[in-house]
Structure to design on (577 residues):
């Protein structure tokens, strides 16, 4: 928590919050003494002028006290909100610009809770700390000293009241703190079930699992609610206990103070002032305790946020990145081995090939054979265990990730679109593209017809592109990939959602596109018809390249390729390149 506070609070604003708080506390503490003076000097001597003067002073001090409180609230609130905003920005940056592998250990649902709810916990405690944690100790010491000045003997009452108060507060904290900590984990669980329910809503309905999912969510929801009720019941005990102790202390003070007045060892005004100081002292004590009750929850939240911020990305830039030559495109895999973290087996073994500008490399293989793994190494989503990948003659690890990503245009297996318009989605890879360039990319991707029907480039794209069919979404992301000027164009299983005719037309147009032909094209596919016209086909099986060559060469000599070909021809597919 301190680490986050040090990083995200403006210390000048904290200093101002402290300054305003000191003004407020000083005014609050001076009022009981003035009340006592009015009683003992003004009323006792029937001095109306003194009463007016002192009353006026009290009014002025109250007004200054209110200004102090307002100043403190202003800085406490703005600083805690700013702190929240800055933490959220940092978290988002960290998640967006780091490699994905590390975040899998935290999980998406928990990441969202950490960016939202955990940050709110910290904000709430920070505003309390900047108010109560500052006010309470000053008030506690100030009221204690002033009460002692009024009557040292009567101060003994606190020797009884404070330990009782400390005992009950300790008891409440003992039970509440662990529950507060577990609340955050239970919110994670709610988010997880909610997210799964939301993203899988169609599957849930299709399999008639609505009730099962609802029960699962209800379970998580009830678990959170029960813990929440328990913890807030425990905390709410604090108020009656404090009221009881404050009232008990006042009774003690009146009883003992009355005796002192009877023996003329104390004045009435001083007793009234003493009672006010006693209340201020006990309430301050309670406020400090309350912060200590809520602090552990915020500490737990801070630890969860720091855990994300401390995640070290395995993919880093070289100290002095080399420039990337973009004139002559080439892609080389030089004896590349790759293993997923913690996996026993290599996911890719000794992958070796080179492709140059204008060439198309196609990767074909069965499900789980390692096709996506291979292409994911190109944008450095992961780094090889051994061997080297070179882009335009430079090792990927020797250039900056920004230069690398600038030189790659990729369509992932899952078509990802963002809410906005067709144009805003297209400009994602090339912000300065003209409308003509966008229409050309849409033409090549066989997408212009339906885009014209859907309102042109200003047509709305809903979240995830939900207002388009799977095949249309796929064509839109292919167009986005074509639009970007790059050295390597990667299409990871992008043509599988297209019908044979569209697939064939698209590849024909891709071959004619000058910009794409200036780079290397990598196509991942399961259909032989999609890869048949490639310059180099890599047949992959169990992470190994078991054959490479052209369609005609592989058809003659490669057993795995022949098996794939046979199975697809049997199913009635045609190899129409
Ligand atoms: N993040 C991951 N962590 C661990 N293992 C993984 C991960 N992603 C994939 N694998 C494993 O690596 C192997 C290759 O997976 P990959 O996704 O590259 O296959 P693919 O050929 O693209 O399959 P498909 O055609 O079904 O998409 C599989 O055995 C898979 O279980």
């Amino acid at each position: 928590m301190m680490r986050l506070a040090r990083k995200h609070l403006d210390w000048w604003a904290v200093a101002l919050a402290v300054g305003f708080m000191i003004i407020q506390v000083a005014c609050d503490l001076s009022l009981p003494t003035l009340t006592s003076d009015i009683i003992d000097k003004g009323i006792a001597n029937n001095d109306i002028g003194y009463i007016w003067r002192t009353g006026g002073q009290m009014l002025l001090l109250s007004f200054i006290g209110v200004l102090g409180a307002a100043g403190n609230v202003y800085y406490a609130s703005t600083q805690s909100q700013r702190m929240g905003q800055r933490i959220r920005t940092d978290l988002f940056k960290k998640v967006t610009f780091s490699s994905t592998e590390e975040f899998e250990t935290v999980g998406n649902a928990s990441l969202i809770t950490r960016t939202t709810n955990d940050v709110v916990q910290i904000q709430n405690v920070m505003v309390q700390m900047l108010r109560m944690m500052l006010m309470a100790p000053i008030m506690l010491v100030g009221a204690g000293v002033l009460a002692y000045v009024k009557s040292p003997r009567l101060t003994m009452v606190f020797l009884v009241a404070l330990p009782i108060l400390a005992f009950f507060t300790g008891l409440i904290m003992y039970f509440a703190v662990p529950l507060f900590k577990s609340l955050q984990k239970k919110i994670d669980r709610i988010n997880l079930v909610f997210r799964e329910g939301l993203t899988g809503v169609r599957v849930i309905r299709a399999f008639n699992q609505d009730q099962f999912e609802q029960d699962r969510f209800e379970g998580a929801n009830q678990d959170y609610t029960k813990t929440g009720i328990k913890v807030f019941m425990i905390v709410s005990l604090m108020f009656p206990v404090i009221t009881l102790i404050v009232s008990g202390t006042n009774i003690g003070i009146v009883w003992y103070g009355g005796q002192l007045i009877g023996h003329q060892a104390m004045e009435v005004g001083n007793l009234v002032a003493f009672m006010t100081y006693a209340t201020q002292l006990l309430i301050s004590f309670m406020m400090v305790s309350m912060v200590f009750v809520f602090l552990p929850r915020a500490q737990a939240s801070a630890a969860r946020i720091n855990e994300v911020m401390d995640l070290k990305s395995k993919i880093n830039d070289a100290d002095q990145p080399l420039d990337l030559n973009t004139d002559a495109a080439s892609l080389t895999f030089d004896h590349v081995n790759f293993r997923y973290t913690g996996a026993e087996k290599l996911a890719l073994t000794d992958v070796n090939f080179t492709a140059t500008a204008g060439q198309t490399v196609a990767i074909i293989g069965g499900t789980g054979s390692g096709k996506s793994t291979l292409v994911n190494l190109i944008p450095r989503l992961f780094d090889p265990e051994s061997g080297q990948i070179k882009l335009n003659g430079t090792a990927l690890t020797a250039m900056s990730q920004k230069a690398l990503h600038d030189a790659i245009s990729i369509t992932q297996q899952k078509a990802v679109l963002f809410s906005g318009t067709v144009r805003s989605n297209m400009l994602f890879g090339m912000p300065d593209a003209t409308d003509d360039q966008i229409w050309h990319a849409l033409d090549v991707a066989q997408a212009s017809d339906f885009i014209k029907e859907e309102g042109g480039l200003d047509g709305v794209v809903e979240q995830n592109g939900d207002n388009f069919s799977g095949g249309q979404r796929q064509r839109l992301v292919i167009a986005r990939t074509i639009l970007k000027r790059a050295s390597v164009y990667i299409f990871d299983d992008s043509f599988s959602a297209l019908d044979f005719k569209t697939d064939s037309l698209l590849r024909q147009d891709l071959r004619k596109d000058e910009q794409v032909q200036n780079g290397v094209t990598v196509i991942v596919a399961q259909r032989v018809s999609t890869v048949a016209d490639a310059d180099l086909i890599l047949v992959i099986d169990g992470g190994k390249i078991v054959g490479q060559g052209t369609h005609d060469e592989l058809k003659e000599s490669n057993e795995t390729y022949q098996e794939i070909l046979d199975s697809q021809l049997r199913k009635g597919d045609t190899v129409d390149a």
In short: Residues 82 and 479 are 40 Å apart (CA to CA). The first strand starts at residue 330 and ends at 338. The chain is about 65% helix and 10% strand. The pocket of adenosine-5'-triphosphate is lined by residues 340, 343, 347, 365, 367-373, 413 (CB under 6 Å).
